[in-house]
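User:
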Amino acid sequence: MSEQDKLVVDEKRRQLLKISAGTVAGVGVLAGAGSWIKNRVDGIEQDEFPVELSPDIRPMDQRNVLLTFAISQALAKKHPDRNLSFSADTGGPIAPGEKPFNFQDGMMRFATAHTRADNNRVGYTQLDYSLEAASWWSMDNLAPSQSGGVPNSGVFSWDQSDVVPHKYPFKDSVEKVCAIKTAAKTFGAVRVGICRRDKRWDYDPLYDVMKEETLTWEEDFPFEPKTVIVMLTEMDYEAMATAPMIPASATAAMGYTNNTIQAGAMAKFLRGIGYQAVGSGNDMGSSVAYAIAAGLGEGARNGTLIAPTLGPRVRISKVYTDLELDDAAYDKPRNFGIMEFCEHCKRCAESCPSQAISMDDKPSMGPTYPGSEDPEYAWQGQPGIRKFYSDSKKCFKFWAENGGDCGICISSCPWNKPDFWHHRLIDGSNAVTSGVVHTMMKQADILFGYGNVNDEKSVIKFWRSGFDGDFT
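Assistant: Predicted structure:
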């Protein structure tokens, strides 16, 4: 390292110490910081869903989920306006600045991106795409197309013929919770929460895009769910740091594969102790809403779940079951101070290549993006929740152009950090400090080189991350 580089590193370290010390002093935790961090990271329990909900909020029709529509030829014929609204040359109600785009063509381009691998383009080579395909392979065999929201597939089958006739004799709800969470850990989940089934977060009606068939909970689903078990799986930090290049897509694919294994195994476990159960990934309902309800994190500006110490670098699975707990045994939603941080940060929105993420200062009860007042343009999403609304159509359009599922909003997020003590200290302080400190934390993140995107060096670093030898 040159003397100049050493001076830069030393100066950055001094600034980090000043920022950390100022943050600690500002919240009065200079002494006993370890226990204080734990309390803040654990969050504050809420009796209700932690954000305002409209009293007339309705479940989301799965036919209005963007990926469902993008896959479906039948829905494209039924709703031609949805493609026209993204097409400047047809005179449709296009959002300002948008170019012509057809969702079904975009899905085909996205799905076949590997055929255009370029070994001279860093992050988009045959090596990168082969890793992504291999990461999807197990999920594609275990529960085909569930990432696209297809229900009743493979290990996520609705078939309940293997439910054993006698229930295991749990002595109380505590023993049930212990068994479920121990099983989740055994299956590889990094976090697990248990909440009551809430029909507001279920897709209704459901839609099987492979059969082009509408399904209902009352007539088609095999039982009345009482409980939803939510599990998180972690995505690789070094791979996600390559976003929007293909190694980031590979770790997302591996997240789906691990989710499929975990939710499929949990459902099988529950059926083996006498309870009906169905595993779920992107199908059945809103995974983010259920994860919030189960106390695993908060919704973020970019529309993902942020889980303390993991950030948005997680994938979510869930299991619907008729197993029921006493009210006190269910996990409660928690406030971690994440939404307040998102109000002041905006780094994901500033980094988003498609400008799909809201730059609003405050969350709202419905979308505010350009064109959101036109129902032919704003047909996707679920209004009636106080949050930041992204324009997922723009996001998907970039996927099709990029040839991989981006991830910039995850890799750029200040909550997406390795598990070092000073990062946990900042996580804890973010929950109670002011907007000025939040902005300072974002600037510190940038200063120390976290959250860089479109960085070819990150791909080189990723492809060396599994090797512990000496390159010299």
